[in-house]
Automatic annotation (TrEMBL):
PROSITE patterns per record: UROD_1 (PS00906), UROD_2 (PS00907)
Main location per the UniProt record: cytoplasm
CDD domains: URO-D (cd00717)
Protein name per the record: Uroporphyrinogen decarboxylase
Subcellular location: Cytoplasm
Segments forming domain Uroporphyrinogen decarboxylase (URO-D): 46-55, 163-179
NCBIfam families according to UniProt: hemE
Pathway: Porphyrin-containing compound metabolism; protoporphyrin-IX biosynthesis; coproporphyrinogen-III from 5-aminolevulinate: step 4/4
Cytoplasm found in the keyword field: yes
Assigned protein family: Belongs to the uroporphyrinogen decarboxylase family.
Enzyme Commission number: 4.1.1.37
Gene Ontology CC: cytosol
Organism: Nesterenkonia salmonea
Keyword Amino-acid biosynthesis: no
Length: 373
C-alpha cells in the first residue's frame, strides 16, 4: 500500500502544541538573531553534545550492563531512559535520541552488530550488484519500538526538545561496503568509480532507510533532526558533489518542511567531520543548520557559508582534559567565533570521548549558560 507522505506533524506533537517551538535551541536553529523584529533573545545560549548519552556516564554503563548496544536501542524503556540521563545530569538544552545509524539496517533485517570498541560489523559486506539487489525492503511498521521510545521520552522532556538523527547515505554505505569500520573508506570510494550504477543503487537504498528513520522520529515527537555524514571528509569535492550529495539531498527530502498547522517546521542539521573543504556543498543538501567539526574556526565557516547560515559546534573534544582555565578560554573563543552567524548552538566538534569526566561537561554547560546571549 502506498500513501502520499504528509508534511503535517501530528496535533499532539511538541512543536505543534508549542511546547518546544520557542525553545532556545529552535530559536538558534531558525537563525533568530537576524529575523526581522526578533527580540534580543532573553533565553540562555543553547548547548548539547554529540554522544552525550554513552560511556562517559556511570548511570549509562550500569544500565547497559549485559545488553548489547542494538538491543538497548530497540528496548523503548532503555532507549528512553538513556536519552534522558544526560539531560538530567548536565542540564543541556536538547536531548539526542539514543539509537544508532545502523538501526534502520537491523530493522530491515540486515545482519549487523555493534562490536564494543570497534563499531558496526555486518554479517556480510554489500559489494556487488547482486548484493544490493538482495537488500531487504524496510517496512515502516518496523519503526514501532522507535516510535514508542520517542513518545515516552518526549512525555518526560516537556519543553526540552528532542533531536532525532540518521546516518547520511555515504557514511551508512561505507559501513555496508566495508562490512566494518575502516580508516580510508577505499571500498565505497572505489565502487563509485568502478561500478557507479551499483554505488547509486546502494546509496539510494541507504538514503531511503535513513530518511524514513528520521521521519519516524520526527513524526513521533522529535523537534529537530541531524544527518550525520561522519566519513564524508574522506571525499574530494568532485566525488562528493557527483556521487554523494544527490543521495544526502534525497535523505533530507524525507523530512524537509515537516511542520505543524501553524507552519512551525522542524529544523534540520547536517554534520560531518573533516568537511571544511566541502562545507558549502554540504549546505546545499537542504538542511537549515550546518554542524562544523573542530578543525574549522566558526568565523571562517560563516565566511564560507554566509552569515544567514546558523551553525552548530565546535568545541574541540581534545580540550576536555585540559586545565579548566584552558578549556574555559577555548569555549569563550568558540562563542566569539560563532557570533557572526544568524544562529549558533554550542556543541563539540565531534562526539564526547568515552573517557571524559562528566563533571567537566556539566561545568562547560554552566559556563555557556552563564554568558549572556
Ligand atoms: O548521544 C548521542 O549522540 C546519541 C546516540 C548516538 C549513538 N550513535 C550511540 C552510540 C548517535 C547520534 C550515534 C551515531 C553514530 N553511530 C555515528 C555518527 C556520529 C559519529 O560519531 O560520527 C556513527 C559513525 C555510528 C556508528 C557507531 N556506533 C560507532 C563508530 C560506534 C562506536 C563503537 C565503540 O564502541 O567505540 C557505535 C556504538 C555507539 N553508538 C555507542 C553509542 C553510545 C557506544 C556503545 C557502547 O556503549 O559501547
Amino acid at each position: 500500500m502506498t500513501t502520499t507522505p504528509t508534511s503535517q506533524l501530528p496535533a499532539d506533537h511538541p512543536l505543534t502544541s508549542g511546547l518546544t517551538s520557542e525553545s532556545a535551541l529552535l530559536n538558534q536553529y531558525r537563525g533568530s538573531r537576524t529575523s526581522a523584529g526578533a527580540p534580543a533573545s532573553p533565553e540562555r545560549r543553547p548547548v548539547w553534545f554529540m554522544r552525550q548519552a554513552g560511556r562517559s556516564l556511570p548511570e549509562y554503563r550500569e544500565l547497559r550492563e549485559g545488553t548489547s548496544m542494538l538491543d538497548s536501542c530497540l528496548n523503548p524503556d532503555m532507549a528512553s531512559e538513556i536519552t534522558l540521563q544526560p539531560v538530567r545530569r548536565h542540564d543541556v538544552d536538547a536531548a539526542i535520541f539514543f539509537s544508532d545509524i545502523v538501526i534502520p539496517l537491523r530493522l530491515a533485517g540486515v545482519g549487523v552488530e555493534i562490536k564494543p570498541g570497534v563499531g558496526p560489523v555486518l554479517d556480510a559486506p554489500v559489494r556487488t550488484a547482486a548484493d544490493v539487489a538482495a537488500l531487504p525492503e524496510l517496512d515502516d511498521a518496523a519503526f514501532a519500538p522507535i516510535t514508542e521510545a520517542i513518545q515516552r521520552t518526549t512525555a518526560e522532556l516537556g519543553s526540552t526538545p528532542l533531536i532525532g538523527f540518521a546516518g547520511a547515505p555515504f557514511t551508512l554505505a561505507a559501513y555496508m561496503v566495508e562490512g566494518r569500520p575502516s580508516r580510508d573508506h577505499l571500498g565505497p570510494r572505489a565502487m563509485m568509480h568502478t561500478d557507479p550504477q551499483t554505488w547509486n543503487a546502494l546509496a539510494a537504498w541507504a538514503a531511503d532507510v535513513s530518511g524514513r528513520f528520521m521521519r519516524a522520529q520526527l513524526m513521533a515527537g522529535a523537534s529537530a533532526a541531524q544527518l550525520f555524514d561522519s566519513w564524508a571528509g574522506s571525499l574530494g569535492r568532485a566525488d562528493y558533489q557527483r556521487h554523494v550529495l544527490p543521495h544526502s539531498t534525497a535523505a533530507l527530502s524525507h523530512v524537509s518542511g515537516l511542520s505543524g498547522p501553524d507552519g512551525v517546521s522542524a529544523p534540520l542539521v547536517h554534520f560531518g567531520t573533516g568537511t571544511s573543504e566541502i562545507l558549502d556543498l554540504l549546505k546545499t543538501a537542504g538542511a537549515d543548520v550546518v554542524g562544523v567539526d573542530y578543525r574549522l574556526n566558526l568565523s571562517e565557516a560563516t565566511r564560507r557559508l554566509g552569515p544567514e547560515t546558523p551553525l552548530q559546534g565546535n568545541i574541540d573534544p581534545a580540550f576536555l582534559t585540559a586545565d579548566w582555565s584552558v578549556l574555559e578560554a577555548h569555549v569563550r573563543e568558540v562563542i566569539a567565533a560563532g557570533s557572526g552567524a544568524a544562529g549558533h548552538v554550542l556543541n563539540l566538534g565531534h562526539g564526547v570521548p568515552p573517557e571524559t569526566d562528566p563533571a567537566v561537561l556539566t561545568r562547560v554547560v554552566e559556563l555557556i549558560h552563564s554568558i549572556d546571549p
